[in-house]
């Protein structure tokens, strides 16, 4: 299972959606990256493979970061939004 975490402006926790296949996860990651680069605001509706009734609509102009992680890789040290967790750990030492 792959998780795509999306960090939005002024929202303290990332939004996350899951994909079963690596190709689908990479495609969604690239779609989000392309939307961020485009600069023209649009609304994207995302669904989740793990919770099929889960839906979220986001404005692409509010995205500030996207993270793709492989939940099957066995990395239990990082939490959701791991790049922020690592940053906090480094700065608090």
Automatic annotation (TrEMBL):
Q: What is this protein called?
A: UPF0367 protein L3556_12630
Give the InterPro entries listed for this entry. Answer: UPF0367
Any single Pfam family the record assigns to this protein: UPF0367
Q: Which domain of life is it from?
A: Bacteria
**Family, similarity comment:** Belongs to the UPF0367 family.
């Amino acid at each position: 299972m792959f998780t795509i975490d999306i960090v939005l402006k002024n929202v303290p926790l990332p939004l996350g959606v899951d994909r079963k296949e690596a190709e689908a996860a990479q495609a969604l990651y690239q779609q989000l990256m392309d939307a961020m680069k485009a600069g023209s605001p649009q609304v994207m509706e995302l669904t989740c493979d793990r919770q099929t009734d889960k839906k979220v609509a986001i404005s692409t102009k509010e995205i500030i970061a996207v993270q793709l992680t492989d939940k099957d890789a066995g990395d239990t040290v990082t939490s959701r939004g791991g790049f922020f967790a690592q940053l906090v750990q480094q700065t608090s030492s």
